[in-house]
Predict the 3D structure of the following.
Amino acid sequence: VSAPLRIALLGAGSVGRAVAERLLTDGEWLADRADGRRLELSAVATRTPARLAGLKVPQGVAIESDPVALVANRPFDVVVELLGGLEPAGEVLRTALDAGTAVVTANKMLLAESGEALEAQARRSRAALRFEAAVAGGTPLLSVIAEDLVAVRIERIRGVINGTTNWILDSMETSGLDLAEAVAAARAAGYAEADPSLDIEGIDAAHKLVILGRLAFGLWIPVAAVRRVATEPPGAGGPGIAGVTRADIEAARAQGQHVRLVAEVRRRGADIEAEVVPRQLLPDDPLAAARGVTNIVAIEGQPVGSVTISGPGAGGPATAAAVIADLVRIARGAGSTWAGLPARDLQPAAAR
Ligand code: HSE
């Protein structure tokens, strides 16, 4: 019998709690998929242990408040980072990768801001760094680009990759709300954060787009090089959807079209361009079909033409399934999400 994969889970929010629940209740089923290796929840770092209420956490599982101390002081095979934000998540990842410990993270902000340094560190210590859950939640996307489409020359990826803003645009269209009313409705429905500016201003989508750009084109585009302000309607002048008006939505609807916040990264000659701006889409555009918090991503390249993937972009149990898929891959001996892809020396156009 192979040794269990000892897991430190950092963060017990909606995704962290769902990861813990799957590991504790579905162990045998998951081990069958992990070459017989048990995925063992060894420790949890959370400042609010009440978030684990109702789960049968065995006695031997350490529950601690400080994720930095937990990872520095005890050996694990994998650290699952679901804290979000730049710190202390960054310190935890640096500590784990430095020690050669595998990391699974859903932290799109940290990857977008520090991906280049983290990748260099993971390559130096030969630690696996996997992050399927960081983009499009429970929808398989990154492994599709990095593994299944490895023989495709990708030219462009465009997608609706922020569920909150899509829910807001969708309800402006279907309920005739203005932006402020739709944001309030999204908050009431539990979709937007208390400070929804990361979503509204397109920053969250830009973070995810940087990750897609790394896998498709081999470079970490600086977040600041992602254009987020539209120069023409819909949404002219404001970052992300901040400038989208009821008139923009109505003008689109009068033509049978839909406004979506489109994140796009593409090759143009020797350059790579990236933007997150609202677009008025024809009804037969695959991205126009995004309703509510659904994510839809179209990957274009030769010789396949276009491959479109859609599914849940958020949600605890769905996103936890992507985290656990990475744990299973690590248990089977897989490397990082980018394993097998070259790190190419391209420059983003806006950074030149
Ligand atoms: N705020 C994000 C969204 C959560 O709305 O898509 C999932 O990454």
Observations:
- The chain has a mean pLDDT of 95.
- The longest strand covers residues 258-268.
- The radius of gyration is 20 Å.
- Residues 137, 162-164, 199, 204, 313-314 surround L-homoserine (CB under 6 Å).
